[in-house]
Design brief:
The protein is mostly helical. 84% of the residues lie in helices and 0% in strands. The chain is built from 18 helices and no strands. Helix 4 runs antiparallel to helix 5, helix 8 runs antiparallel to helix 9 and helix 11 packs antiparallel against helix 15. It is rod-shaped, with a radius of gyration of 58 Å. The chain starts with a helix and ends in a 7-residue tail after the last helix.
Length: 519
């Protein structure tokens, strides 16, 4: 019975070693699923966040493209109307009697175009407040000065150079705004395409500036050396901007630019510019001294008639307007190409985001399903290990203990059950239990053998004691039969009584040793 009580305690201690330090409150399934769930939730959050960011970027790119695409018409209208107002204002200051009537209508068109551009600028600020609001807001004070400048022009209180500079600054806000749009564009390709489109826009403005100066000079019949240098600068800027555009534009836009430079209008405009440059300054009055300061032969200019020009002023202005409109059309087409890129990028990004989000959800679902299957399999093995262990502890080991108590011979290697659960951690736990079981059974067998040896020695001593007592009783019985003295016989009877009690003690010891006492 001592072996039977001792063995389960050994097994329990071996199987639950360290249980107090590692006691868990959650089940194995909950622990495994929580580990996978944390990873899956993290994956979902990252995937959804990335997909949301990409979708937001695509939506922003699409909105930006739609906004910029809807702005080009108003921008072109503003550039053309203010260029016309600038030309008419300078002609009015130069004394052209026909300019005053046309200037009123030109100002109305300018106001309409300016209001439309301001509205688009406010929409751009709302779409990208951090990137464009500060820079676009700097244009508003300049636009607010337009009524005052017009009043000064009507009263001829503003020099024509100052009026020219003001309108050029107003028109110059368009290229600046275009560069702002390119810089804060949501996509790099869109920004580059918009940046390339600014060059034809600048070329159109430089062409208008040069032609305005030339028209005013021809109207006044005077072209000072300073004005000529400014005219040359603007004419050169037109050609440099066009030359640069030819290096960055590609495809249909490059073909459109070449069509402009190969057109008769371009040839006439450049020929007229070259003629004005070659003719040199045309000073009158005090302007002759100014011309000499710039290295021109004023005496020749005053004594000789100016060289004839290749075309009339109206024809030159008409050709210039057509070339400028063609350059603005090129800028508009390049901008629309950029908008198409933005829309395409937005659509592609949205599609990729959707596919990525679906892929993340699928991967997460597969991961959870795989984790659930793995957890169930692991838990099933754990339960089988538990059932096998309980069967050993409750059935097989107690039966083995009973057989040992009955003195049966036990082969430890054959009798001890072996739990086989693979080579992983669970298999290591089962192997540890196998070792504990073998150690416990071996200790029980050894203890049983020790007890059997003690019992054999005990029985041997008891048998010898019984044999000695039997011989003593036999001798006392012989002495009693031969003794005639009553006193001595009584003493022998007392010795016989004591020997009989010693015999009974020896028989009791033999019974306790597991055998039947012999007589």
């Amino acid at each position: 019975m001592a072996v039977r009580r001792h063995l389960p305690e050994v097994l329990v201690r071996a199987f639950r070693s360290g249980a107090d330090a590692t006691r868990g409150r959650l089940g194995i399934r909950a622990r495994l699923l929580s580990i996978v769930l944390i990873t899956s939730v993290t994956l979902v959050v990252v995937g959804v966040g990335a997909a949301g960011y990409l979708v937001k970027s695509s939506v922003t790119a699409t909105l930006w493209a739609n906004l910029i695409s809807g702005t080009t018409t108003q921008v072109i209208s503003m550039v053309q109307t203010f260029e016309e107002e600038r030309r008419l204002s300078l002609l009015y200051l130069a004394g052209d009697p026909n300019a005053a009537g046309s200037l009123v209508d030109a100002r109305k068109r300018s106001d309409i175009a300016l209001a439309a551009v301001i509205a688009k600028g406010e929409a751009a600020q709302r779409l990208n407040p951090d990137g464009s609001a500060a820079e676009l807001e700097t244009f508003r004070p300049l636009y607010n000065r337009v009524p005052g400048v017009r009043t000064a022009i009507d009263s001829r209180a503003m020099p024509h150079a100052e009026a020219f500079e003001f309108f050029s600054t107003v028109i110059g806000t368009i290229p600046k705004a275009s560069m702002v749009a390119a810089r804060v564009a949501p996509d790099a390709k869109l920004g580059i395409a918009l940046g390339y489109g600014v060059e034809p826009l600048r070329a159109a403005e430089a062409l208008s500036q040069a032609d305005t100066l030339g028209a005013v000079a021809l109207t006044r019949g005077e072209l000072t050396a300073e004005e000529l240098l400014e005219f040359i600068r603007y004419a050169g800027e037109v050609r440099s901007q066009v030359a640069y555009s030819a290096t960055v534009l590609t495809g249909s836009r490059l073909a459109q630019l070449r069509a402009i430079t190969d057109s008769p209008d371009w040839q006439q405009v450049t020929a007229m510019q070259d003629a004005l440059i070659l003719r040199g300054p045309v000073p009158t009055g005090d302007a002759a001294a100014e011309a000499s300061d710039y290295g021109y032969d004023s005496e020749q200019s005053t004594e000789n008639e100016p060289a004839p020009l290749p075309m009339t002023l109206p024809a030159w202005q008409d050709a210039s307007v057509r070339v400028s409109a063609a350059l603005l059309s090129l800028w508009e087409n390049q901008s629309r190409d950029a908008h198409a890129i933005a829309r395409s990028e937005g659509t592609d990004t949205a599609g990729i985001s959707l596919i990525g989000g679906i892929a993340v959800l699928i991967v997460t679902a597969v991961a959870l399903l795989a984790a659930l299957i793995s957890a169930n399999r692991f838990i099933a093995r754990m339960r089988r290990l538990r059932d096998d262990t309980l069967e050993l502890a409750d059935v097989r080991l107690p039966d083995l203990m009973r057989r040992l108590d009955n003195g049966a011979e036990i082969d430890t290697a054959a009798e001890v059950a072996h739990l086989d659960f693979g080579t992983d951690e669970l298999g290591e736990v089962a192997d540890a239990f196998n070792r504990a079981q073998v150690a416990a059974v071996s200790a029980a067998v050894a203890e049983s053998k020790t007890r059997a040896g003690f019992r054999t020695v005990f029985l041997n001593i008891a048998h010898r004691n019984q044999l000695a007592v039997h011989r003593q009783l036999a001798l006392l019985d012989k002495a009693e039969r031969q003794e005639e003295n009553a006193d001595q016989l009584e003493l022998l009877f007392e010795l016989d009584h004591l020997a009989t009690r010693a015999r009974r003690h020896a028989e009791n010891l033999i019974v306790l040793g597991g055998e039947q006492p012999g007589r």
